[in-house]
Amino acid sequence: MRESTLLSRRAFLKEAVAGAAVAATGPVLLASAAAPAKVDYPAKGKVVNLIVPWPPGGPADVSARLLAQVMERDLGTPIPILNKGGAATQIGMTELARSKPDGYTFGQVSLPTFITVYLNPERKAVFTRKDFQPVALYLDDPGAIAVRADSPYKTLSDLVEAAKANPWKIRCGSSGILGQGHLEGIELEKVSGARFAKVNFEGGAAALTALLGGSSDFYPGVVSDFAVRHKSGDVRVLAVYDKEESPFLPGVKTAEAQGYKVAPVGSSRGWAVPAGTPKEIIDVLSQATKKGTEDDQFKARTKELGMMVRYLGTDEYASYWTSMEAHIVPLLEQAGVKVPK
Length: 341
Fold this sequence. Notes:
10 strands; single chain; 42% helix; alpha/beta; 12 helices; 8-stranded mixed β-sheet; D-Maltodextrin-Binding Protein, domain 2; two-stranded parallel ribbon; 341 residues; 19% strand
């Protein structure tokens, strides 16, 4: 694993922002910092549809709904949520790519899951990254591993050693093939030598339900999957995939602190629009996102749910997206995916 993949997610974001600043010219920086140009958007009486490429109920869906409610007030128009779950976001993102680039349809992007879709030739996606224009990042969610509260595995080492003693028997749930959780499981296998039986579900809500119902033995998800249920005693979080412990999971050590030097695979959520959407409209959506992340009610609610709010504007988000691609390629290759050069 290359050294850059061992950066904390906070450092990763910081480097992405710095990279955007270095790459941009003076006039571009001034343009991105300025207020959006006046544009008749959204037009009175027209709704702005938001495609969420996950089923309802998971952290990605919940975060989108919370922010959309705030953005509705700023934009002065309804933002109905269109859940288009399935195929690890491929179904929803296909619809977004085919949408008219007029600003009246935008979509949620979940990295790194979405990256694995268009970089994997076997997925036969009808789009590439070039079919989308980043708008803004609004949330960053480190990875975490949890078991049921009554699980015999009290520590990450307990889980790993059980899997090493019983290869392919311990069931590792995930929110989708080669999604964020699946990559977490692959990463743990790489650094520990354990081998798990992968059980993939359609979205985080289904994966968590499966864990609680006994259809999987552990679930590599994200902090916001577990923060509330860990506190209530429904699950036991064994580790966080980051360089630092999460403020939402006090007392839970990082995987690295427990002797497993894993890459900080987590999940970030942002917005994108179809390529060709006018910059003036993108600016409006980005500014509405920024205002939304600064809203006291939004911040309070996401904090309750264990979600880490982090805003990046259009240029910074594009740079972060590029950095994340480089970060994920080695994990895909480890999983046997022949990533096009």
